[in-house]
Amino acid sequence: MSENNSDTAGTPGTPSSSTSQPGAAGSPPAPGPGPATAPAPTPTPAREAREAASTDSPESASNLTPENAAAAQRREQEQVRASASQVAAQQEAAARVQSVVSSAERAAAAATGPGGTGGMGAASSAASSAGSGAAAGPTDVPTPAAAAAGGGEPDGTLGASAKRDGSPPAGFGSAPDFSASNPPPASAYPPGPPAYLKHSDSAWSVFGRVIAARARQIFDRAGRRITQRTLRIGVSARIFHPEPGAKGLRGKTLQYLEESIAHWVMSRDVLVFMIPTVGHQGMLHPSNIRLRDYAKNLDGLLLQGGADVSPQSYAQVATRPEWPGDRVRDMYELELLHEFIESGKPVLGVCRGCQLINVAFGGTLYQDIATDVPTAGVHVNEHYDQHRHSIHFPEGSTLVNMFPGRREAIVHSIHHQAVNQLGRDLNIEAVSAADGIIEAVRYRRAPFVMGVQWHPEFHRAGGAEMLDCTPLLDTFLRVARETRF
User: Fold this and answer.
1) Among 13, 98, 182, 303, which has the highest number of CB atoms less than 10 A from its own CB?
2) Which one from 351, 379, 389, 459 is the annotated catalytic residue?
3) How far from chain centre, in Å, is Cα 191?
């Protein structure tokens, strides 16, 4: 019995022998005496693959089924259509190249006419503008067949101007014509005026804006110089009046300041100016300078200590002949204080300066603490700047903000007079911890007008025991910088 190699099972009533095509390689002839042939097998993908791959005999190429023949015919038609499309594309490319060459020749002919010497610029620009479409074709150089089909010259070529060997176009290498005008295209210009110009602008309006910008630049530069300028602090003068019958310097009026107060202010890199008294009727050298001029040109005022304030300055009389005070200095410093407050400049009073601020706003003084307040502690002795006592910052005092975490402090106290009745619009900033004597006041209607009864210039910065008064000085100078305009 022969082996069954069919991919499909037989049906009832059909012979079980193999049904291969006659003449197929490896298939024996069908049994039977007659010339009758076996029915054609049903084609399957596996059988078609075997038959296509079978190359054992030359006759296998003709053993195609109708389906295989139809598929082969379709593939042949597709190849023919693809070849026709390629030929059409080559013809189109040849036409484009011919158009490019013709444009280049026309541009070269125009550039080398009677009025010119020949130029590459026109030819190259025409070739580049017209060649952008040809570059998109399927091929750069058309084949001879495409050219003969209708894309070239009448003789079947692309023309002498189309170089197939890569040679440069006509006019390449000739000397450029620098005298020829070659303006930029219209598309290179902006569509309208620049953005910084307005439709209503004229030459005068633009000129005005330029002048305004220059003026702002000058003002900004001047403002920076003013803000960065070193502070100038004025210090009121102590006055030494001539002694009756004295000779030499003791017979002259001397105005001076204590070194320690000047150095304390200068420790913050500011300039210190002692402000002398002024007189309208100077006996030797009259002057038109007024204290108001100092208030306008300086950034702040410091009233230093010294002689007692005269009781006449707060409408009282001296209780003892040895306490007359210095009426001349009172009048000078009261006017100076008034001018600086009117100018909006800060004022810091030390010792006598604190008492003068209270008197300037209508307050009064104890002419002698030991006499007027018998229960008070000692506020002055012969050791001068070695005497000290404790002070307290009451609730609401601005000194609490200057000295965070401090409500008590030790200070140098050298005064036998003190604030009695508080002047108008003044706040109490510090009191003596032992007896409640006022030790600091502040005028609340100005940016900074404060007086302290102790001597901060005698306190060492960063000292462990005495109150470091650097924050007080820094606040005074900060306000001076802010109000200098």
Assistant:
1) 303
2) 351
3) 32
pLDDT of residue 18: 41
83 vs 101: CA distance, rounded Å: 27
| Residue 272 bridge partners (DSSP) | 233
Strand partners for 301: 234, 347
Q: Provide the pLDDT for residue 69.
A: 64
Q: Which secondary-structure segment (H or E) carries 294?
A: helix 291-297
How far is it, in rounded angstroms, from Cα 452 to Cα 352?
Answer: 9
Q: What is the pLDDT of residue 294?
A: 96
**Residue 373 near residue 437 (C-beta atoms within 8 A):** yes
Q: Which of 379, 389, 415, 455 is catalytic?
A: 455
Question: 234: which strand partners?
Answer: 273, 301
| 3-state percent helix, strand, coil for the chain, nearest multiple of 5 | 40, 10, 50
CB-CB contact of 395 with 287 (8 Å): no
The model's pLDDT over 345-373, given as tens digits with 9 standing for 90+, comes to 999 999 999 999 999 999 999 999 999 99
| 379 is an active site residue | no
Q: Which residue, 142, 42, 53, is CA-closest to 91? A: 142
| Residue 259 exposed, middle or buried by CB count within 10 Å (0-12, 13-18, 19+) | exposed
How far, in Å, CA of 59 to CA of 21, rounded? 12
Per-residue H/E/C for 115-181: CCCCCHHHHHHHHHHHHHHHCCCCCCCCCHHHHHHHHCCCCCCCCCCCCCCCCCCCCCCCCCCCCCC
Greater confidence (480 vs 72) lies with 480
Mean of pLDDT over the chain: 78
Among residues 333, 339, 429, 457, the one annotated as catalytic is 457
Instruction: Based on the residue annotation, tell me whether 457 is a catalytic residue of this protein.
Output: yes
455 is catalytic: yes
pTM, full prediction: 0.57
1 residue type, one letter: M
- The whole-angstrom separation of Cα 268 and Cα 225 is 19
